[in-house]
Design goal:
Length: 275
């Protein structure tokens, strides 16, 4: 088992939490905090790499948290971000999770499997998708990871990507848009970060000294109409062509040709749609 990172510190956690949860005031040594949304407990978790993929391993005093009135569990995800999970969700998990008595309190072991951009809480007889509760750090290291992979491996992962069951879900009082940044970067990489319509290609070096590209990945069938991140629904566009598609100047046809100002044309570049 390989431990791939450190925990988020409290300042990083504060930077990720929605403003509606701030300020934080610690009220118990078991990392319970008072927030504007009620009591929240923090459980720290590193990302571990095993033969079966990436996992989060941690434990939490769920019974104690429930008695204390904790409404949310803030589960850190290495340095990637955090899962802000309603306590009512984890209360269901206690019937299935492994636990151990520790200083008079049951400590439950939280098992979370990372499938691409999805976070699956699981035990032997239980699975629950927690992805809607994930709040990322502004981290783009996944771009470097994908671009260092073999082309065939990237293509295989792009083809086998399992889309979200719903593109939008309600998470309490707000609507959450499910989107896979990893899948979008795979498609951009397959197309060499080049606009499939006009051929625009512009690399640059960011403030961290890493190469990035001025390019965007758009949905052929919009999210609002049920379109997701499967390989056949993503198009690599420069900002200008993306804006024209959004404005209706460019329309993509079912055969992956496109119409611009009433004139039908074929894509200049296509390494993934018709493959």
């Amino acid at each position: 088992m390989y431990n791939s990172g450190k925990y988020l510190d409290i300042n990083e956690i504060k930077s990720i939490l929605p403003n509606s949860f701030l300020p934080l005031e610690q009220v118990h040594r078991k990392l319970i905090f008072r927030t504007a949304q009620g009591f929240m407990a923090i459980t720290n978790s590193r990302i571990y790499n095993e033969y079966s993929g990436e996992h989060l391993w941690s434990s939490a005093f769920l019974d104690f948290f429930r008695k204390y009135g904790v409404k949310y569990i803030c589960q850190t995800v290495g340095k990637r971000g955090l899962l802000l999970i309603p306590m009512e969700i984890l209360s269901q998990y206690t019937d299935y999770a492994n636990s151990k008595l520790y200083k008079g309190e049951l400590r439950y072991f939280l098992r979370i499997r990372i499938d691409d951009d999805k976070y699956i809480l699981h035990s032997k007889d239980y699975e629950l998708d927690l992805t809607e509760f994930f709040k990322p750090m502004e981290d783009d290291s996944y771009i470097d990871i994908i671009n260092q992979q073999d082309h065939n491996k990237i293509m295989e992962a792009a083809r086998s990507f399992k889309d979200f069951e719903e593109q939008y879900v309600m998470a309490h009082s707000y609507k959450v848009r499910h989107e896979s940044r990893c899948q979008k970067e795979r498609i951009a990489t397959i197309e060499n970060h080049t606009c499939q319509i006009c051929g625009f290609y512009q690399p640059y070096t960011n403030s961290a000294g890493k190469q990035r590209w001025i390019i965007e990945v758009d949905h052929i069938l919009p999210k609002s109409e049920g379109g997701g991140e499967t390989i056949d629904n993503l198009l690599v566009l420069c900002p200008n062509c993306h804006a024209k598609k959004t404005a209706g100047i460019i329309d993509v046809n079912s055969d992956y040709s496109y119409t611009e100002n009433g004139v039908k044309k074929v894509l200049l570049l296509d390494n993934h749609l018709k493959v």
